[in-house]
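haha ok so turns out i had the wrong file open the whole time. this is the CORRECT one, sorry everyone. sequence first:
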Amino acid sequence: MSTKSIMIVGVGGQGTLLSSRIIGNALIKQGYDVKMSEVHGMAQRGGSVVTYVKYGEKVYSPIVEKASADIILAFEELEAARWISYLKEDGILIMNTQKINPMPVIIGAAEYPKNITAKIKETVGRCISLDALSLAKKAGTVKAVNVVLIGVMAKAAGYDKDLWLEALGNTVPARFLEINKKAFELGYEVD
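then structure:
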């Protein structure tokens, strides 16, 4: 099997790092060699965060080069736009349509770009955009956006659902497991 790459992009506080651990655990359970890298940058709440997960028979580096990601999970629109050049031509972008204003927008030095989703859909072959925040609320917590997106990814990429639910159980604290399972299921049901 050739090496596959997943990028998880968002802002600090959205659960990108937990997502990479859930994804890594699920892929290890499936027998893959997995390498992960967490690029924190300005990882405090509101700053851009990207994590890389590479998997295959043998993986030597976790770093994902431009135009080589098989999947990008984008937790926020502007982050999707920022990292879209890393998606390979036949890759899948899974994008939460939530908007989180970066500091320049908050202080009035810039405007949040308009029509990001429409512009991205013009350039990407396969884009699944959804309001993951609403689904997370339906599951019981706004903090489950990450797991909703993992559910969407698991279905879109044809991964075995039960292995992902098991990985959730092995990664998420027990007191949050049921809410996260519900969030995963809601994401998995997205067409």
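Residues 90 and 125 are 7 Å apart (CA to CA).
again sry for the mixup
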